[in-house]
Design a protein that fits this description.
Layout: E1 2-7, E2 13-19, H1 21-24, H2 30-44, H3 103-119, E3 123-126, H4 136-145, E4 152-156, H5 161-168, E5 173-177, H6 183-188, E6 191-195, H7 196-206
Parallel strand pairs: 1-3, 3-6, 4-5, 4-6
Antiparallel strand pairs: 1-2
């Protein structure tokens, strides 16, 4: 088991914590991680793009000129794709891009992402995150104390409105609950910040 330092909100080390190898010490499966990211990005697509084909644009019902004898190339409609105002060839239509990964694959991908963060020293554990008021400056001070100066994902165990709203106005910070973390957000963050309670819940749920 890996031992990591536990810090308080002032950035001081207050102890250590053992991380389960079943979650933070697995063999990284790059293929599953890639599939999880592609799946999430595909599932986020609206799929609402639309362009009209030649059968949907208005006009063009009559043959513009006779087949032979004009000197022009043969034409059947003024709404063919090569005409101005014509339909689009193979036009995009509304569709669903989503596809599913099974539960085992999702968990394995998440474990790989968490392991990668630990292996690269990009994982920080804090004993707790708690604020008396909703204030962005307070949250920024905590990040400065922890020496987090880049894009960060902060994972908490329970939905604490004061924590979430305090972090909301910091562009480089995203918050998540233990039941909403995903592979894309973990990989996208330069630093992963977990509370002790969040670590325990992740080890219980995903073991």
């Amino acid at each position: 088991m890996a031992n990591v330092s536990v810090y308080n909100m002032e950035g001081k080390e207050v102890g250590t914590m053992e991380l389960s190898d079943a979650i933070f010490g697995v063999e990284i499966n790059e293929h599953l991680v890639h599939m999880a990211v592609v799946s999430q990005l595909a599932n986020n697509r609206q799929g609402t793009q639309k362009a009209k084909t030649r059968s949907e644009v208005s006009g063009g019902g009559r043959k513009p000129w006779r087949q032979k004898g004009t000197g022009h190339a043969r034409q059947g409609s003024t709404r063919s794709p090569q005409w101005t105002g014509g339909g689009v060839v193979f036009a995009p239509t509304p569709r669903d891009y989503s596809f599913k990964l099974n539960k085992k694959e999702k968990r394995a991908a998440l474990k790989s992402a968490l392991t990668d963060k630990l292996n690269n020293d990009k994982l920080i554990v804090v004993d707790k995150l708690a604020f008396d008021e909703i204030k962005t400056k307070n949250f920024k001070n905590v990040l400065d104390n922890l020496k987090v100066d880049s894009k960060a994902l902060v994972v908490i165990n329970e939905n604490d409105e004061k924590v979430v709203l305090s972090a909301r106005n910091i562009p480089s910070v995203k918050t998540a609950l233990t039941n909403t973390i995903n592979v894309y957000d973990v990989l996208d963050a330069k630093t992963l910040v977990l509370t002790q309670d969040a670590v325990k819940t992740i080890e219980e749920v995903y073991a």
